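Lab notebook, bench 4. The sequencing result for the construct came back, and we need a structural model before the next group meeting so we can plan mutations. Quick request posted to the team channel:

Model the 3D structure of this chain.
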Amino acid sequence: MSPRKRRRSRRKEKREQEHIPWLEHRRGYPSDEEREKIIERRKQLRGELLALMVMKKGPSSPEGRELIKKYGDEEINRMLRFFPQGPRFRLTEADEAKAYRRYRLRFARFGGERPFLSRSEYQRLDDEHATLTMKRWENLLGWSEGGGEVYSEEDAKRDEERIRELTDLLFLDLELYDDLLPPSPPPRPEDYSAPPPGKYPDPVAELLEWGDDLSYKRVLEAAMADRERWRACIGDLTRMVLDPGLLDGWPSEASSWAPWHALHMLSAIDAWEVALSLADLTDHPNDWLSDLLPEVWAAMDGVEMVLWMLLDDAGAASYRRALAVHALAFLAHDDPDVYFKIADGFVSRLQAFPPEEEVLATALVVALTNLRYEKAFPAIEKAYQEGKVDETAITLDDVEIDLFAGGEGEE
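Done. Here's the predicted structure in token form:
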């Protein structure tokens, strides 16, 4: 066989290996063989998308167009849904709340016989997974703590098995297969303990049936259809948001998602009167909603003064006050009339806060950077010099790169 024919034969063989019928019709669920091929293909796609993002290249770049040609729009758009979306607050508590909400959703749909984890259990195991993953990379690269001997093959094998176990338990790879397997909602165990939820009148009680389809469009349509009726229920909606019996409800039961719907309903009807009460979400041990507060608050007409009050409340927890910072940043980003007022207010507070207020100072630096407020740089630089900012969250180099990069801020 000539070299040309051999190359042609290899290309044909490769096309046949890559051809997966289910990806063409996407009906039902693929066979075991197809599923394995699709998962491997998606792992490769995920890696290539991450590389593209690191290089800050989008779909219209030559590399992006090559990916679209290789994998198709549908697979790429599907994978992108699982990538981090929205603003980066660089707040540990907010990141943990968001991650736990994602876990609850995945458990509700695919939990099966797996145990359900509290937020503290989830965080502990997620930290373990991150530590083992970093250790694996260090081993692959030949690094080791103190420059000593890299850990043994037996240890590496044991850790690899634990990584697989944690990945499954925490649903960390669900983006690879969530449409390839039928849902497996977990039944509520007889010994599962949660406080009894409260009773609610109509129309608030309707939210107990909306389940885990977390659609703001649905909330907005309901609010617009009968705004005054919903505004008459502000007290009951607030009670639902903070109801421990619902917040700790069994994830596969529809009512356990009612606090999400109630929170967004309060936003849709501009219930700024209860904005401060909603901050009590941050005190819940299994908090899975507090990271949403900045966007929820910022969507409420008339809330700005309340947010300044919370930010300046020295008796309030730093996390609550930091969430107020990011809510104000949303307002500044969306309304040119208050942009300079809010940005200048951030600068004056950054200058005034003592080093002990590291969480707040860091939130202000992140917000000012996201807002691209270049005039703030001298105050930001001084804050770093005075040790006010958590450099593990954002470095001065990060600030310089993002602050003077131009374009829209992340907020």
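The two ends are 61 Å apart (CA to CA).
Will bring this to the meeting.
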